[in-house]
Amino acid sequence: MDPSVQEKVESARNFTFHLLKGIKQIGMYRHNEARFPEFLGRAHEALAAYTDKYGPLSLRVEQQNFTLHGEAVFSEDTPLPYKFYRDGIRQLIFRPGLTLEEMVSLTLISLSEPDRGAEDVLAQLWRAGLEHLEYVVVEGFKMDEVSEQEVEVEVDKVVGYLYSRLKTNSEDFLRFARVNAEDLDSKLDGVEQMRGLVVAGNYASDDLKARLQREIAEEEHSRLFPKLVSAIFQVVEGGVDDTELLEEVFVQLLDAMLIQDDYGTINQMVLKLRAMAQREPEGPSARLLAHFVLKMGEEQRVMRLAEVLKTTRPKNPVDITRYLQVLEPSTVFTMLNALETIEIPENRILVCDVLARFAQENPQPFVQRLESERPQTVRDMVYVLEKSNHPDRVKMFGLVMINKNLAVKLEVMNIIARGRTAEARKLIVEALNDSVTQVRILAARLLPEFDRDKAYVDLVRLMKDPGFEKKSLEERTAIYTAFGSTALPGAISLMLQMLAVKPTLLTKKKVLEDKLLAIAGLAGACSIPSYKALQGVVEDKSQPVEVLTAARKAMYQTKKTLFGETATEEE
Global pTM? Predict the structure, then answer.
């Protein structure tokens, strides 16, 4: 093989190697769409290196592989080529300047499963309109008076000829139509096999297709509906006797906007109706506004909005927020049911933020759902009630603390602690006496996040309680760690006193446990004074081996946290 050709093939193989690697990473983390560009970054760099040096990368599509100059470019078996081959694609041409976003789109198209309901690859490529990717498609056709078995041709020669005629740098978009039959016949000389053949090329450039699509979309969304809305409002302002007919027209317009996901225009209609209603509070405009808002909040329309939010991130979330804010309080239960169907966390928060306004006036629907067995529902209700700033919300949170689901209880405690309010702190203090060990441990850890001085007092009282020694070692360790995390001088001093105690024959085991608890407390402090205290313990060779080991481990962990990885490496 010519060295220059070999160099091109190796460069193409480098691209396909990183492409397969990126596809495997996407398969493992399919839920994390934000990282897809990161996974395909190396493949994009390899492709850019090829196109910058050699120009467009033209790969021939075969059933089992892509080839370049007759050489396979995939180094391992992959179903990727067959997905394109099955839909009639015989060539893929990567143009210089292909963006990372285009590569991500192409990869997701290749990973789609038409057998499971997805569109075929060809339709998806057409819809995506990738500017820097070209493809040649071969489709079947019949020749007059010749059976399909008799029509056999080596497709590649025909494809190569027609594709060469389809390429142009001119503005003459119809040049492809001038393929002469005699020219085609001359190109088929010596061809022995023929099987139902027709070649379809990219008759329109990607730029032209994208421009036409934009113009059609603009006509539908930016021109048609605004003109229609404007015309209807002109009729309203001119005076209408048949209010019921006008109400029906507005409802039909509302449904059309919902189908188009055009919430911005709906919001503009509400503002216009509201302005008209203010001029005539008792006029037909006021009744029309009330009817329109009522229809906006009906279950089928709210659930339509929920379908949009279920698995996709909206382009204009602000418009959806404004839509929901207009709805009447009577729609709260419908909105709560819609919330249950939404899977994307950001979209759940969007709906919860709107619901918080309704919770200020009537928290009961949200309090009822605090007893739900679904952890996500309880989290959402706690978020809504906390954001509503309802004066009795801490009492409402008390229902969560009797929830049988431990995971829910622990998660909600973390949510409650974010409030940093006196009421929330009171609830956490009460959790120190909970019957479940994990709840008591978490409560101790959360206390210092509210007020360090008050946490110091509460935790000292807990450590001096007669029943403290009966608690498990894990719980006592967690309490001392929380006590140390207050980082108050009194806490550091108390733990140093515990470390200075000399054991006797009868108290040896008790003193050792206390010293290990003190080490845990110093580790929890994670400050310069606690680091120096741990350093002093490590240098004190009179301490038991267990204490020295624990102190050394805590010291290095503290040093790593305070000064970073490099400090530990230099040691």
Answer: 0.50
